[in-house]
Amino acid sequence: MASTLDLTPRATSARGVGSNADVPPVYTYTAAGSAFARATQPDYYGWIEHVRAAAGCTRPIRLAGQLLTIDSSTGRVLDQRHTDAMPDAAIYTACGNRRATVCPSCAHTYQRDAYQLLRAGLVGGKGVPDTVAQHPAVFATFTAPSFGTVHVRAVKRHTCGNRKRCDCRPEPCHARRDAGLCPHGQPAVCWARHEPDDAVLGQPLCLDCYDHDHQVVWNLYSGELWHRTKQAAERWLAKLARRRGIPRVEVVTASGNTRTVPPMRLSHGKAAEFQARAAVHFHALVRLDGVHPTDPTAVVPPPAVFTVADLEDALRHAAQVAFSTPGHPDRPDGWPIAWGEQLDIRPINLTGDGEVTDSMVAGYLAKYATKSTEVTGHRSVRLTADTIGDYADPDGDHTARLIDACWRIGRPTGTPVPLSQRTRDPRHRPGFVDRWECPDCGTHTRYAACPTCVADRQASLDTKSTKPATANPYARLRRWAHMLGFGGHFLTKARRYSVTFQLLRDNRVAFRRHEHQDHEHLGRQLVDEHHEDTTLIVGTLTFAGVGWHTTGDALLANTAAAMARERQATGREELAHELSATPAGTAPAAT
């Protein structure tokens, strides 16, 4: 909600509701007082313009340093600016957080970018060829299996017009004739008809019967399960192509070798969503593409014999994939990882009509890309040994037991060897020795160690990952305990599905730089308006802090940003109304 505080003091001295020109003494330690003190400063309008790029951000990043504009051909410094001469002696930039609960403004920008990215993969645009609209595409939902009985709201037949505001009468939660007790003495039946905002939805009927260990491990390996599912679908399609007599395609790899690949491949855009029971499930836009023999990055149509039905059959076949995790001291045979029984696959209609359209699914996935674990009632930053006790409890509620399972299963499982008992590599004495021949490579040398073998060994070490290897595959559970075991990205895509977020951000930056330029007077350049092809902007900026200086600054900046968003929304609505009211074949009147 936008603040109703005046952005500037009123010039009149009239008293009344909303007037801040004649008021009692202002205390600057309050939000209204600090906002009043900022608004009465002479450079207020310059400050508002200075922070406009991050005005709506909740926790902007403050940078301090110097900006140099350099001529790339001569190296001459054309312009020099330092943050000491700017308002607040800092440059404000938006935090860019995707979570709506952390920064609504940045999350809104991320959501709109995600919408454009996902929709471009279905209909083209933004650098994606328009021919993708002819590719078979489906909207698939993969859910997690059951780890125990939880409270649900089941509606067998919807009569409402809007599922978001469903007021249909649900069925009883868990109605059973043989009502009894679970082994732990808790009721195994629930006759309640839960409302959509009921707090018990997603909570287990019996916390002790629920398999919290299995759920956090499933969340951890859900990304690997999706990877294997996509591989299984592509293999099923490859077998189908071989049965239909479609030859494989020869492609040239990056190393220059030639290999044959199936004539089609899958490209996807995927969003993860937490259910109320704190289990992850995936919504995926899956598109079937062809393979170009000479350009591996090209997006081409698949063979004409493949249809949406073939793509749907491939995904249903791949949804049966399952595997077991490595052994753990608590469970030597590991945990089984597989999809749940609920699998929904629907074809996407690109004409704008039908049950599932491109705009609807792109907006649906973009919405969930800004969410996290809020639906479970848990929100925290990364947990450490000092803070785990505040959230984990083996006898607590549902989320507390999940966090405890993450910390317990992710514990170190091996016994470290004492330093005194570890083997040490032999160290050669400095200086030369008698001439000798290396038995491994045959090099003759007077060094104590063969220089050829040492160089080869060092080269092999340089190619290895510097990330320390761990023998415990469950160690990541402690790192992602605040995410209830899920350590993947909430929005992922295949490389060839669509463009990148970086491309969209670069285009937005370029548009804003030229938004207020007068194209009629291109010959007259200001001092700081240099041609981008011949100049470079070199910045030596350092981190100066996070957040606004005062609560009043945040109030004023966020209010200005909210008013700007309202003006933009009103303008878009008026433009859409004007375009809809304009007869076909005529241009709208210029304003």
Notes on the structure:
With 591 residues, the chain is α+β, with helices and mostly antiparallel strands. It contains 11 helices and 15 strands. A hairpin with a 5-residue loop joins strand 7 and strand 8 (280-290). Helix 1 (31-39) packs across helix 11, helix 4 packs across helix 5 and helix 4 packs across helix 7 (398-409). The radius of gyration is 31 Å and the shape is globular.
Number of helices: 11
Order of helices and strands: HHEEEHEHEEEEHEEEHHEEHHEHEH
Q: Report the oligomer.
A: single chain
Q: Tell me the radius of gyration.
A: 31 Å
Shape: globular
What structural category characterises the helix and strand content?
Answer: alpha+beta
Separation of the first and last Cα atoms: 30 Å
Residue share in β-strands = 5-15%
Estimate the mean pLDDT confidence: 83
Helix content: 25-40%
Strands side by side in the biggest sheet: 11-4-8-7-14
Q: Which spans have pLDDT < 50 for at least 5 consecutive residues?
A: 1-21, 518-531, 584-591
- Strand count: 15
Biggest sheet character: 5 strands, antiparallel
